[in-house]
Write a structure and sequence with these properties.
Elements: H1 6-33, E1 43-48, H2 54-72, E2 75-80, H3 87-93, E3 98-101, H4 103-113, E4 116-122, E5 129-137, E6 152-155, H5 161-173, H6 179-182, E7 185-188, H7 192-200, E8 206-210, H8 211-220, H9 222-227, E9 228-238, E10 241-244, H10 250-261, H11 267-276, E11 280-283, H12 290-298
Helix pairs in contact: 2-11, 5-12
């Protein structure tokens, strides 16, 4: 039996060492091309409207932001916009790249900033819209619009659809051009859950709120369904959609769109969607806001010149 020579051993060892070095260098190159250090990633600033209290609002969207960050290799930073009325000014002053706008603020941003809608959630029941509710206490004795005369009414904010635009549309189509004269008192609670809480505490007789927020509170607080009832509901408008600024880099737009629209096909994404309360995200365009444009026209509100601010 013959054995390899010492020279052959040395050559085999040299080849093995060179192979290991090449493999290590290849791994290093691969690490250099994959931005695993998040500090090197670009930042995408996304605004959230204050339809709920700011803490629960940010907590609800944070998992989606983390998911998008990992998938598009960018730090998606959430910025809660504290007031509805300053939405356009805050979008610009905060240098936001996009926002999950409500239907009114989305329509306003389309007209004023020419944002591009990307995607909005679709719920497990197949809906991707919401509607406004007019709510009263069950013991209020209010059953129709005539019963509202001389009562207190809580809106949300002058830059919301369910909490302002659609209630005005409701009054207009029932022959009431001046709700403030028709009602005893009107005021703005600031959030949809604020309106519902004011009804529970008898601070108002009638309130306008978003049906999805109402449903979420029903699930948490038995008093909501026990003490409140829905007087009427508005037509449907698109659910909060991610809209981005017109000049955002096209590759970032496409990445965000692709990741949101395919989120339900990913195991982690599907779990996050479930916790968010949605089944998937669906494509959204400016045409989806046509109902809001129509309601604004009906009550005589020009979105292009609407400059409502609050402080």
């Amino acid at each position: 039996m013959s054995f390899p020579s010492a020279d052959l051993h040395r050559r085999i060892l040299s080849i093995a060492v060179l192979a290991l070095v090449a493999f290590a260098m290849g791994c290093a190159d691969q690490q250099d091309t994959e931005p695993e250090n998040r500090e090197s990633w670009p930042t995408i600033r996304i605004g959230l409207i204050p339809e709920r209290n700011i803490f629960s609002q940010k907590q609800r969207y944070q998992p989606i932001a983390e998911y998008l960050s990992e998938r598009v290799h960018a730090n998606v930073e959430l910025v809660v916009l504290s007031r509805y009325g300053n939405i356009i000014e805050n979008f610009v002053s905060n240098r936001l790249d996009g926002a999950f706008f409500g239907s009114f603020t989305g329509a306003l941003a389309h007209r004023k900033l020419h944002v591009e809608a990307i995607a909005r959630p679709e719920y497990p029941d197949g809906t991707s819209t919401y509607h406004g509710l007019l709510l009263v206490r069950k013991d209020s004795g209010i059953t129709d619009i005539e019963d509202m005369r001389g009562k207190r009414f809580a809106f949300v904010d002058k830059a919301t659809t369910a909490g302002y635009l659609l209630p005005l549309y409701y009054f207009k189509t029932h022959g009431i051009d001046d709700p403030e004269s028709f009602l005893k008192e009107t005021y703005f609670a600031g959030t949809h859950d604020g309106v519902i809480n004011d009804l529970l505490e008898r601070k108002t007789d009638i309130g306008a709120a978003k049906n999805t927020v109402f449903a979420a509170l029903v699930a948490k607080n038995p008093r909501v369904s026990e003490e409140l009832t829905i007087l009427t509901r508005s037509p449907d408008v698109p659910e909060n959609a991610l809209c981005v600024r017109a000049d955002l880099d096209e590759s970032i737009k496409n990445d965000l769109r692709i990741e949101l629209l395919s989120m339900d096909q990913n195991k982690i994404g599907k779990q996050i969607l479930s916790e968010f309360g949605a089944a998937r995200f669906i494509d959204t365009t400016e045409a989806d806001y046509n109902a809001v444009f129509e309601y604004a026209d009906t009550i005589g509100l020009d979105l292009e010149t609407y400059d409502y601010l609050n402080f």
